[in-house]
Amino acid sequence: MIAVYPGSFDPITLGHLDIIQRASGLYDRLIVAVARNSSKTPLFTAQKRVAQIRQAVQHLPNVEADTFEGLTVSYAKEKEAAVLIRGLRAISDFEMELQMAHTNKTLSNHVETVFLATSNEYSFLSSSVVREIAKLGGPLDHLVPAHITHDLHQRFDHNSMAAKDK
């Protein structure tokens, strides 16, 4: 069975990786699908985010990274996926995610949404929190993989901060 874990992953966090690790044990193949949205200005290009994800999941042989644009259920159908994976951090996530799951069900009866609760240690974590901390030069090692920390420091030109974090 194939599952798709869609999102912006700008950048991928340890919380995302927690969901990926756990979902990879539930499905034969897991596609981490980076959404390309022309109305948003991401920190990293879609290609860079795919490369970041590939590096972070290289130890998981049944996980791959890809990009898509448009409806998530259309992408899932194209990839012959039966499941969409969504992570839940807090009750506030549930309301929006449930609405999205119901909407997706109206678009395709053949794709189910499976919710995975984020592990407690990552329940506060989001890409926007990471971007804000990175912009302000704060420590990132407990939030993202080391290669993402490096990319964020380069993006915000915090070479002096990177040296301090080591």
Question: What are the SSEs and their pairings?
Answer:
Elements: E1 2-7, H1 14-24, E2 29-35, H2 46-56, E3 63-68, H3 72-78, E4 83-88, H4 91-107, E5 112-117, H5 127-135, H6 146-156, H7 159-165
Parallel strand pairs: 1-2, 1-4, 2-3, 4-5
Main traits of this protein?
166 residues; alpha/beta; five-stranded parallel sheet; 7 helices; 5 strands; 44% helix; disordered C terminus
Summary, kept brief:
This protein is 44% helix and 19% strand. The protein contains seven helices and five strands.
Would you mind describing this structure in some detail?
It comes from Romeriopsis navalis LEGE 11480. InterPro entries: Cyt_trans-like (IPR004821), PPAT (IPR001980), Rossmann-like_a/b/a_fold (IPR014729). The record marks 16 as: Transition state stabilizer. Keywords: ATP-binding, Coenzyme A biosynthesis, Cytoplasm, Magnesium, Nucleotide-binding, Nucleotidyltransferase, Transferase. The chain has 166 residues and is an alpha/beta fold. 44% of the residues lie in helices and 19% in strands. It has helices at residues 14-24, 46-56, 72-78, 91-107, 127-135, 146-156, 159-165, and strands spanning 2-7, 29-35, 63-68, 83-88, 112-117. The protein has a five-stranded parallel sheet with strand order 3-2-1-4-5, with helices on both faces. It is globular, with a radius of gyration of 16 Å.
